[in-house]
Amino acid sequence: MKKVYLSALLSLTLMTANAQEPNIPMFANQQQIDVKYDEYKAAPQGFDQERAGISHGTVKLIEYQSESVGTTRKANVYLPPKYDAKKKYSVLYLLHGIGGDENEWYKDGGVPNIIMDNLYADGKVADMIVVMPNGRAQKDDSRAGGMGSFRAFGDFDKDLIGSLIPYIEKNFSVYTDKNHRAIAGLSMGGGQSLNFGLGHMDVFAYVGGFSSAPNTMRAAQLIPDVAKVKKENKLLWMVCGGADGLLFNSVQLKAFCDEKGIPCTLINYPDGKHDFVVWKYGLYNFAQLIFK
After folding, report:
1. Which DSSP string do the residues of the chain spell out, in sequence order?
2. Pairing verdict, β 58-66 and 32-35
């Protein structure tokens, strides 16, 4: 058992439109929660390094028309090695942080293509594609929006469910049921994933949050119907660094789930900060657990 202190919502003001999400210092407050973390197991050395002698997937930049935003928007799509349009694939929607866009995971240090290539080579993941959208649902969806884009992040579910998912299902060979859809993300995207995934369990069966930000709804709001979550959610999985000031956002949900008997994983990455060290670890583990 470990006591974790509330990260003040003020910490969001420290986030900028920088490509690299900033590290958030730990804030001490009067509120504290006892929580039991799930076991941390280190990822194998080289899990995020490009390997020779294996097949590699491809990343394709797509453009789609968003009905809710009223403009053309972009997303990166990872297609696994030997992608075959005659087969059906599951889909992981992987979201970025407040300082990023559709390129943050792919170009700013997340190396999702390399992580997934290695997992495929080792036979550790189910067949899936990974969609990396821009989670800032407004006409000017550039990184320059920063905190001014806060509402746009909250509105992204309309674009995601109403436009992006239909586009993906029309243009790629994927399953179209919730049991073959997962959503996860880092920081702001982690909060979006928890909010949207648990708020739309008819759309997503697997939900992951990596260092989720204070946009994460409180547990009682996220889970008003405990029985429904137990019945419909297949995986609720979180990780956050032990030195990350945003740890409380995951802790409060974990504590609620433990109290209500809802299966939920929360890993405290030892001394981890608010960076891709933790988020790559999150993707590596989450990807192995979904669609199985």
Report:
1. -EEEEPPPGGGGGG--S-SSPPP------S-EEEEPPBPP-PPPTTTTS--TTS---EEEEEEEEETTTTEEEEEEEEE-TT--TTS-BEEEEEE--TT--TTHHHHTT--HHHHHHHHHHTT-S-SEEEEEE----SSS-SGGGGGGGHHHHHTHHHHIIIIIHHHHHHHS-B--SGGGEEEEEETHHHHHHHHHHHH-TTT-SEEEEES--TTSPPHHHH-S-HHHHHHH-SEEEEEEETT-TTHHHHHHHHHHHHHHT---EEEEETT--SSHHHHHHHHHHHHHHTT-
2. unpaired
Question: Residue 18 above 80 pLDDT?
Answer: no
Question: Can you give the pTM of this predicted structure?
Answer: 0.92
Query: Can you read off the two tokens belonging to residue 131?
Result: 């969609």
pLDDT digits (tens, 9 = 90+) for 67-97: 999 999 999 999 999 999 999 999 999 999 9
Q: Using alpha carbons, select from 14, 26, 199 the residue that is nearest to residue 98.
A: 14
Can you tell me which residue has the tokens 């989720």?
212
Band of the pLDDT at 27, cuts 50, 70, 90? very low
Predicted confidence at residue 15, as pLDDT, reads 40
Write down the pLDDT at residue 30. Answer: 32
Q: Which residues are CB-contacts of 245 (< 8 A; sequence separation ≥ 6)?
A: 7, 11, 24, 25, 26, 27, 274
| 83, 129 Cβ separation under 8 angstroms | yes
CA dist., res. 58 & res. 216, Å (int): 32
pLDDT at 4: 39
67 contact partners, CB below 8 Å, separation of at least 6: 159, 162, 163
